[in-house]
Amino acid sequence: MASFHVADASEYLAITGWGIDDVKLAKKAWVFVGQQCKKLCISPVNYEFEVHAMSAEKLPFILPAVFTIGPKISAIGDEAADKEELQAQLLLYAKLIAPLHHNTSHVHDLVKGVIEGETRVLAAELTMEEIFKGTKTFKEKVFDRVQLELKQFGLFIYNANVKQLVDVPGHEYFSYLGQKTQQDAANQAKVDVAEARMKGEVGAKEREGLTRQNAAKVDAETKVLSVRQMGQGQKEELAMKKAGWDKQAKVAEVEAAKAVAIREAELQMEVEIKNAMRQTEKLKAEQLSKATVQYDTQVQDSNALLHSRQKAAEAALFEQMRTAEARKAQADAKFFEQKMAEDAKLYAKQKEAESVALVGKAKTEYVASMLQALGGNYHALRDYLMIDGGMYTEMARINAGAVNGMQPKISIWSNCGGDAGNAGGEAAAVSALQQVAGVYKMLPPLLSTVHEQTGMSPPAWMCTLPKDNAAN
């Protein structure tokens, strides 16, 4: 439902989503469902560039520079207005720059574009001599202009280091200028050496004469001053003691005044510290109470939602259990009913088998007794059983039903002179020729019957069947 996130010392939490209009920045926070939390690093980063620019005389040069840039965060002791402005700058950084940290080249190109643009505009307004001699002023102007442009991205320049100007290949302005400076310095050094040597020799002679004059003068004055100093020594000693006493009195007064001022400052600082601590504790208490109320409210809502979902799940589970129990009861009843039906069928089958066994046993005993009564005559027993069982009557009925409705067709074939020959043949011995003739006599009725039953006719080379009228 929720998770507690804490950022490192050099990180901030950027939270968006449900309940947040824009972006919320915090060092620690609860992240709920429907919210997204990402960590953004606020550590400054060094960007090193070589800016190609051109002076007012259209002389190109290279300006190596190293900038330390990052978001500016509020510090302890900042005013409330400053903190709000810094918070707004940090919010801009979280929106515009922090999402691009995974692509460092994009941020590098952005910063480089701002620095190159402002450096070129400023260099075009100055001559090469002004840029070279006023490097500090040039650096400050570049710093101010770049900072003004980077502020819209929530970035702050912590440090800017502009190195010495470098010539562009093909334009050796600084090389020639350095050579000229070296030659001027060498010539001036030679002149200075010669003048120094001359001044040294003349000065040595002058010093020697002046030394002798001064030595004599000093000896005379020393004798006069020694007398005067003896009298003034006592006065000076008294004056020095008086000055020491005045100094001690003034130092004591100053120390007393400073001690009072220091104590007042310490008391004022303690008062301000107490006020700041009171304000801090008040803000902490307000924030803690708000966070506690919000947390309790969200916990209660979450508990209520969880309770409702648990009740719904329990109701659904209870309904499913009731349904499963009902289905189980139905299945048990159906199984019991089927079991009772199967038991009844089994019992009926068992009784039927027992009755069949008893009937068979009775029939076996009956047949055995009848066979014994008939003296072991199996054929007589079979005929008796068939007659007793009505078998012959049933066979007669079936045969009668088989021939019922039949319309037999009888074909009579005769051969001229066949009767006398047959009669004589019956009395005499049948010869082989007569047997063959009998076979031929059988063919016409056989072929006619096949034709009537199947519709097939014999081949023309064998014989030709008569028409139906002629046959009839």
Automatic annotation (TrEMBL):
It comes from the Eukaryota. It is a lipid-anchor. InterPro entries: Band_7, Band_7/SPFH_dom_sf, Flotillin_fam. Residues 34-196 form the Band domain. Keywords: Cell membrane, Lipoprotein, Membrane. It is found in: Cell membrane; Membrane, Caveola. GO terms for cellular component: caveola. Belongs to the band 7/mec-2 family. Flotillin subfamily. This is Flotillin-like. It comes from Aegilops tauschii subsp. strangulata.
